[in-house]
Every structure is written in C-alpha cells, then in structure tokens.
Amino acid sequence: MARILVEDLSFSYDGSEPIFDHVNFSIDTNWRLGFVGRNGRGKTTFLNLLLGNLEYRGKIASSVSFDYFPFPIPDPTCLTWQVMSQLASMAEDWQIVREFSYLELDPMVLERPYESLSQGEKTKVMLAILFVRPGNFLLIDEPTNHLDRHARKVLSDYLRRKQGFILVSHDREVLDGCVDHILAINRHSIEVQSGNYSAWFSAFEQKQEREKGENERLRKELRRLQESAYRTAGWSDRIEASKIGAADKGFVGHRSAKMMQRSKNIMRRKEEAATQKKGLLKDVETTEPLAFQCLIPPSKRLIHAKDLTVLYDGESVFDPVSWDLEVQDRMFLEGNNGSGKSSLIRAIRHEEIQTKGRLKMAGHLKISYVGQDASDLQGSLKAYAQRYAIDRSLFFSILSKMGFSRSQFDQDLGSYSDGQKKKVMIGRSLCESAHLYVWDEPLNFLDIYSRIQIEEAILASRPTMILVEHDAFFQKKIATKSVVLKKALD
Fold first, then answer.
1. Is 80 exceeded by the pLDDT of residue 263?
2. What is the C-alpha separation between 416 and 214, in angstroms, rounded?
3. Please, are residues 181 and 193 in contact by the beta-carbon 8 Å criterion?
4. pLDDT tens figures, 289-318
5. Shared-domain flag, residues 365 and 390
6. 187 and 151, same structural domain?
7. Is residue 404 in some structural domain?
8. pTM
9. CA distance 189 to 156
C-alpha cells in the first residue's frame, strides 16, 4: 500500500483567483475515491496536476504512476482487439474476457472497428484497457455521461470490484455503489472523508447547518461591534466640537484631547474586532432557489397516447405503449440506449418522424425543450437570449443563481465547459413560459449541487414534465410516473 501526499498545494491560472490555496491531504492508493464538487471548482484541474500537466506550487508526492480516462485512441479505424493490443499489450486473453464479462460487454465488439462502437461500448472498452494495465492509479473523469441507467449500475458494480482510483462523477447512486472515500472540493481546498456519497453528504449537511448557525451568531456580533464603533465615532466628533470656544482652553482642551484619543483607540479596537469576526465567517456552500414560468394548462390532460410507437423504415423502434400525461405529472421515459426515448420526444415535439398508433395533444400546447447536445453553443449570452426571445435580466439572474460569475457573462459560449453549457440551456428553459417542459438528459455534466437545486425547483414549482434522465437519485425524488420503452426487436 502506497500513499499520495499533497502538501501546501497552490495553483491558479495566469495569476487569477487561486483554484487551490495551500491544500494539504493524503490518500491511500488502494482506496476507491469519489471526487465531488461544483462545476468549475477544479476537479479536472486537480487530475491534471496529478498527471504533471500543469505547473504548481507546493508538493505532490507519489510512488505510483497515473492513468487517465478518457484517453485518445491512436487509430479508431482499427479493430477493437487491435486497439487493446496496442494499449494493453501485457494483458492476457483471459484477463480481457474477464473484464468484458464484468462490464457485460459482448466479446464480439473485439471484431468491430473501434469507431463503430457506441459511446457506451467505447467507455467500457477504455475502462477494461485501464484495469488490465498493471500498477497504475486511475483517474476516471465522468464516465457515466453516455451510459443508460442499467449500464451505470454495471459500471458501479464493476468499480466496486476494483481499487486504486479517483472517480469524478455526479451520479449519486453510482458513487454510493462503488466508492469508500470522498474527495470534496470546496473553494480553494480539498477535504477527504471515509464512506460513500450518502455518508459524506449527511455529514456535509450537518456541517453546513452548524456553520450557518455560527455565521448568524458572528454576523449579529459583527453588527453590534459596528454599531458600537459608530457610536464611539460620534462621541469623538462631539468631543472635538466641544473644544471650540472652551472657557479654559488649556485645561478643557487638554482633557478633551485625551478623551478624544481614548475614544479613537476604543473605536479602532472595535473595528479590529469586527474585522476579525468577518474573517471567522465560514464559506458555506449555498444554492439559491429557482422557479419555472408555468402557464395555466389548456386542459387537465395534455397528452393521450394509445398503442403508440415510432417507425424507422416502416419498422417499430419500440413495442407500442399507452399513457396519459396530466397537469403536474412528471413522467420519465425509461429504457436502454437505443430504445427510442429521444425518438418519442421528437414525435411529441411535432418533428418530422413517422409514428404508429394514437398521439393526441391538447390544443395550443406550448413546450419548452432542453436537448442532450450542447456542443454547438456559440456566441454571446445576450445573442442567445435574443434568439430565444427570453427576458435577459431574468436569464442572467437564473445563471447567477446557478453559479455563474459576472465575468462569465461576457465570455463566448464556445469557451464554456460542458456543465456550463447545460446550465445555459436549462436557464433558458426556466425563462420560457410553457405548459409542458420536455428535458432530454438535462443533468449530463451538472454537479451534484446543481442537481439538488433543480430537484428543489421542480418540487416547488410543480411543472408538467416529460424527462429522459439516468440519474436514479433524481428520478426517485421527482418522478410521478414512468413509461418503459422496450426495443421492438428484443
């Protein structure tokens, strides 16, 4: 068993505000660590520091080498077995078969070009390559974004068999299923705690409540000190004024000067005490409430589906389903990747797609849509707001509540992280007045705090929704019904 030691670590980009400031901790290389924190706080940056890709101040000491997921494939046109031979040349055939079995990956993918694999299959192949390499400590950065709910369970079970990795993931059920320690990144610091996500979050919430209470006590004391300092300052002014026109200028003036100096000393000490109180205030993680702009529904039942399926080339994508969507329903579409969930959403949005069965929708139904793909977002936030005809002030206010800084409002959307782009799309949807909100995998790349913030907004505003989302915690919290799509060929 070896250790990774971080001592007095400080890092910032180009002299900007520090991302890490004198960070100290150590971890064992046989631990299974989950890495959590807000978008933009430095999780991927820290992994790059471990990999030696960035200059820093302080010390990172380790006797192990690091491997990173995802990694580039030298030639994706090669057959998958050739890719594995290049990148895991020391692996025996039985080891590859074992990893594929654990990952529920069909060995026949070895005979297919790597570029032809689905995103989920590529994820599993890359993980198998990493774990058959000997001796390296693995840095696994958000592997769940292209996995459906079942595949995420398989991934969690797979990682629970392993040891020696840091897993960056915002899927709370995956973290609960496979990690034994949590790395929690706060402003400028990183803390380590034993246990899974739920154990860490319970302790985190208790700590937050204690710190909020302590902050409130300190703020009251700070206000008392400031008010006392103001009163002392007023007393000094009155003493100064009393010196003018004094009968015995020598005696009274000398005494007044001493009283004034004493009051100024008192005021200075109170101001210093107030400054110290400010320094004791805890940097508590908080999220501000969000709200939907729900329209009054045109009728109680918004959508009626009877024996409905989607057709491609005349063939059903999934077995026919029947369901009703009523006001304030939050309906999840479930099914494995490729079962037709996004295709059904296209039909609901009146896109050109062939269907069979009955799909009846309430008249004048206004829909707000958030899609999976945010990669094409470009231009300014102002132009984006104009394109969708939403209130810019409300839009910027929502993004501020979701963690955007004022400086980010002036940046091009193309420079945003995937998580920030997703927040832009969700923020735009929250600005739109709608009867129905249709969100297709809205939580991809979003941090845990933002997921909880969105959960609370949904529960408070009670919008009518259709969602595709593989975060099991999220679904358990907000779903009122679900429709399971099964591939027609299964």
1. no
2. 36
3. yes
4. 999 999 999 899 999 999 999 999 889 999
5. yes
6. yes
7. yes
8. 0.78
9. 27
Q: Write out the two tokens for 147.
A: 């996995």
- The residue segments making up the domain with residue 217 are 204-280
List strand residue ranges (DSSP E) for 29-65, in order.
32-36, 57-62
How far apart CA 467 and CA 447 sit, in angstroms, is 18
User: Concatenated DSSP letters for 118-142?
Assistant: -HHHHHHHHHHHHHHSSSPEEEEE-
Taking the C-alpha atoms of residue 38 and residue 423, their distance in angstroms, rounded to an integer, is 12
Distance CA 66, CA 139 (A): 7
Indicate the residue among 200, 230, 252 that finishes a domain.
200
| Contact yes or no for 195/175 (Cβ under 8 A) | no
3-state secondary structure of 287: coil
Same domain, 179 and 210: no
Is 180 in the same domain as 217? Answer: no
Q: Which of 359, 388, 367 is nearest to 437 (CA)?
A: 367
Contact 34, 196 (CB under 8 A): yes
Across 263-285, b (16+ Cβ under 10 Å) vs e yields: beebbeebbebbeebeeeeeeeb
Alpha-carbon distance of 217 to 221, in angstroms, equals 6
Q: In total, how many domains does the chain have?
A: 3
Specify whether 190 is located in the same domain as 265. no
